[in-house]
Amino acid sequence: MKFLDEYRSEPLAKKILEEIRRTVTRPWVLMEVCGGQTHSIVKYGIDRLLPETVELVHGPGCPVCVTSLEMIDKAHAIARQPDVIFCSFGDMLRVPGSEADLLVLKSRGADIRIVYSPIDCLKIARENPDKKVVFFAIGFETTAPANAMSVWQARQQGIKNFSILVSHVLVPPAMAAILQSPLNRVQGFLGPGHVCTVMGYSEYEPIASRFHVPIVITGFEPLDLLQGTLMTLRQLEEGRAIVENQYPRVVKREGNRVAQELVNKVFEVCDRKWRGVGSIPQSGYRLRPELRDYDAESLFNVEGITTAESTICISGLVLRGVKKPHDCPAFGKQCTPDHPLGATMVSAEGACAAYYAYGRHLQLKHEAVTAAAAPA
Amino acid sequence: MTRAGEKKSIEAPIGLNGNGAPAAQPVSFTGSCPVPIFDHKEIVLGHGSGGKLSHQLIQSLILPEFSNALLEPLHDGAVFSIGDTRFAFSTDSFVVKPIFFPGGDIGELAIHGTVNDLAMCGANPLYLSAGFILEEGLAVDDFRRIVQSMKRAAAEAGVLLVTGDTKVVDRGKGDKIFINTSGIGTIAPGVRIDPARAHAGDKIIINGPIAMHGIAIMSVREGLNFETEITSDCASLNSLVAILLGAFPDVHVLRDPTRGGVASALTEIAESAEVGIHLDEASIPITEEVKGACEILGFDPLYVANEGKLLAIVPEEGSDRVLAAMQAHPLGRAAAIIGEVVENHPGFVTMRTRVGGNRIVDMLSGEQLPRIC
Fold it and tell me: How many CA atoms lie within 13 A of A19 on its CB side?
C-alpha cells in the first residue's frame, strides 16, 4: 500500500538494524512514549530485533490504560442512567471499572455506542432529542482537537443534549514526572509523533535540556521506530541531548496552530489522576468554565465520585522485582483481572495479570518466541 | 467505589503508590491495555466472538453437560458412521447486521456457512434444514429476497433444503431475521480430516485474501464509508474442497476461518493437535482495500472474519498439488502457502512479521474493538 509499504521494508529494516549495532557500545534504556508505538513494536516484534543491550520500556502513552479508575466509574455512573446514550471510542468499552465494564452495562440495557469521531455524537444528539448524549473524551493532545470541535460545534448549532466527560491527559508533564522519579531508568525517548503533529515539539526542548535527555519525535511504522531508535542512540553515544524530528513528513516544530487555538478556546490545563500512578500536576485538560453546560461531570453530578486504588497493593515492589505477584496477600483474592487493585493487574502485560491469566503459559510463550526467533 | 464524604484519596505523590512504598517509575506505566473481564455474570457480545470468551462459555457451560466422543473434538461438525458410510452433521446460526451487505446477504450466508462446515469435515454436503426467526415488521419483500438468495446458493452448492421451520417474535425482540441451518453430508473413503492430525512439517495453505467479509460488514455499518466498495468473500467451498481432495486425498486438516479470523482458527488447531504453527506475514494474501480499511480502524486482519476462505493443512509432499489445484479453481486463484506446522512451541502460533521480527499470535478475548491509539 502506498505510503505504508515503504515503511515496512525488511531490507531497509535490516540496514537500520546493522547501523544500530554499529552505533551501540554499551547498554541503553529507551522509552517509547506512545501506546501506538508500543503496539507497532509488539506487532512487528521490533524489540526482539534490537541488540540485547538496547532495552525499550513502554511509556505512559496509552490513553486507555492511564484513564483513572475513578473516571471510569464516573463514566459508568453516567452510562447507567436510562435517558443517556453513552458514546465512546471502541477500546474503552472493555476497561474494567470498580464493578463492571461498558460491555457489561450494555448487556444490562444501557445504550452504549462506539463512535469513530466525537463529531458523530452531534448527529446522534440531533436524532435523539429526548436523550442526553455523552461522549467519553479521553486521550492525549492528539484527540483533543476533535473533542474540542464537538463542543464548539454543539454550541454553534445550539445542541443542548450533548456533553462530554473529559479525561484528557498531556504528555510533557508525564515525561517530566518519569524523569524526576528517583528510580528512573529512562535515558532517551522516542517522542510522540501524533501528539506533536498537533502540538509541535518546542515544549519538549526544555525537557531535553533540563534533564539532559535526547528526545526524538518518532512515527509509528516499523522503519520510523527503528530510525527513531537509531537517532536516539546516536545522541546518547555522542553525549548529545536535544529534540530531533524523525517524523518530518507529518510533524512540524510549531505543530498545527489552528488545532491548538481551538483546543485553547475549549479546554484549560488542570491536574489529572493517572491510573496506577496518581495525580500529576498540570497534566490534563478540562473544559473551560464558560463551557460548563457541556461538562458531563457536573451535569450528571458525578464530581463527588472518588475511587481509591488499593492500599494493600504491592505493585511498586513487584515492578522493581523485589516481590513476586504471589507474595501479595491480595493476589488472586481481592485482586484479580476482574477487580484489579493496581497497575500491574490492570495492564495485560503487567506482571500480576500475566501470572494470573497465563500462569505457566507465560514461560511457554516466552520459549515459543525464542524458539521461533532462533535461526533454523 | 466510595463517594465524596468518605473520600479515600489516591493522591499519592509522584513516585509513591497507594501504600507509600516507592513506585518503580517509569515501569509503573506499563503501556499496554487493561486486562478485560472474564468472569461474566451476564452474556456479553464477546461470548459470540469466536475468541476466548466463546471458548470459555462452551468449555465451562456446554461441554460438561453434553460431553460425548462425537462432540468433544469441537470440529466444525460431528463425524460418525452408519453402516459403511461416514457422515458429517453440522449446524450454524446466522445473525448479521445489516442483513444485506456488499457481496451477499444473510440468506446465502446461511447456506454457505453450513455447506462450508460440512466441507471442512471433508464431507460432500447433501441435505440442509433451515429455521427462520422473523421479527414482526420485517418487509415481506426482504424475506422473499433472502429466500431467493438461499435458493440460488443451495443450487450452486448442489444441496437440497429438505426441512424447515418458521417462527415470528414481537417487534423489538429480534433483529429482523435470524436463520439457523443444519446439514448432513457423506465423507468419501480415504478422506480423514481431523484437527488432531496437524503434524510438524505440514504446510498451511489459504485459498485467497483474508478479512474481506468482516471488513465488508464494518464498511456498511453506520458512519463508515470507504471510497472503494469492499465486498464479502462469502461463498460455498465444497467444490473447492472436492477438487483439492481429488488432487491429494490425505489432507490433514481443513478449517474455515470465520469468526475470530485466521488467528483464532490456527490457535485452536495448534492447541487441539498440540503442535506449533509458524506463519510468514508477508505471504498472507490481503487486498490493498482491506489492508487500508484495517489501518483506518486499527484492526488486525488476522482476527477479522472470512466467509469464503479455508485453511488446508497438508503434508509437505502434497502441498504443491493442493496449491496448484486450488489456484486452478475460481475460489482459489490467489491461494498461497502462509506457514507451516512446527515441533517447537506446541499450542502456540507464532509469526515472522513483515520486517523480520517474531511475535505470538494469540486468540482475542472477545470482539476486536476499534482502537483509539
Answer: 16
Specify the length of chain B in residues. 373
Regarding whether A145 and A72 lie in a shared domain, the answer is yes
ipTM of the complex: 0.76
pLDDT band at A353 (very low <50, low <70, confident <90, very high): low
Residues of B in contact with A96 (CB under 8 A): 34-37
Which of B24, B295, B372 is nearest residue A4 as measured by Cβ atoms?
A: B295
Min distance B369 CA to chain A CA atoms (Å): 5
* E strand or H helix that includes residue B117: helix B106-119
Cβ distance of A342 and B17 shorter than 8 Å: yes
Low-confidence ranges of chain B (pLDDT < 70): 1-38, 222-225, 365-367, 369-373
Shortest Cα distance from A161 to chain B (angstroms)?
20
Contact A277 B11 (CB under 8 A): no
**Domain extent for A342:** 315-373
Cβ pair B99, B109 in contact under 8 A: no
Same domain, A294 and A344: no
- Give dist(CA A349, CA A133) in Å, integer: 34
The predicted pLDDT at position A363 comes to 44
How many Å lie between the alpha carbon of A228 and the closest alpha carbon of chain B?
A: 16
| Nearest CB to B25 within list A103, A183, A365 | A183
- The fold of the B195-361 domain, in CATH, is Phosphoribosyl-aminoimidazole Synthetase; Chain A, domain 2 (3.90.650)
B283 and A CB contact within 8 Å: no
User: Are the C-beta atoms of residues B249 and B178 closer than 8 Å to each other?
Assistant: no
How far from the centroid of its chain's Cα atoms is residue A328's Cα?
27
Please name which of B240, B259, B226 lies closest in space to residue B334, comparing C-alpha atoms.
B240
Q: Nearest CA to B237 among B223, B220, B258? A: B258
Best mutation site among B10, B40, B291, B361 for testing chain A: the one with the most A CBs within 10 Å? B10
Domains B69-187 and B195-361 share a fold: no
pLDDT tens, position by position, B95-133: 998 999 999 999 999 999 999 999 999 999 999 999 999
Domain boundary among the residues A309, A330, A354 is at A309
Q: Report the predicted TM-score, pTM, of the whole model to 2 decimal places.
A: 0.82
Nearest to A104 among B42, B224, B348 (CB): B42
Contact criterion met (CB < 8 Å) for A45 and B358 = yes
Listed by number, the residues of chain B in 216-275 with a beta carbon closer than 8 Å to a beta carbon of chain A are: 223-224
* A98 exposure class (CB count in 10 Å sphere: 0-12, 13-18, 19+): middle
Query: Which of these CATH numbers, 3.40.109.10, 3.30.1330.10, 3.40.1190.20, 3.20.20.70, describes B69-187?
Result: 3.30.1330.10
Distances (CA, A) of B337 to A198, B69, B204, B325: 43, 32, 6, 13
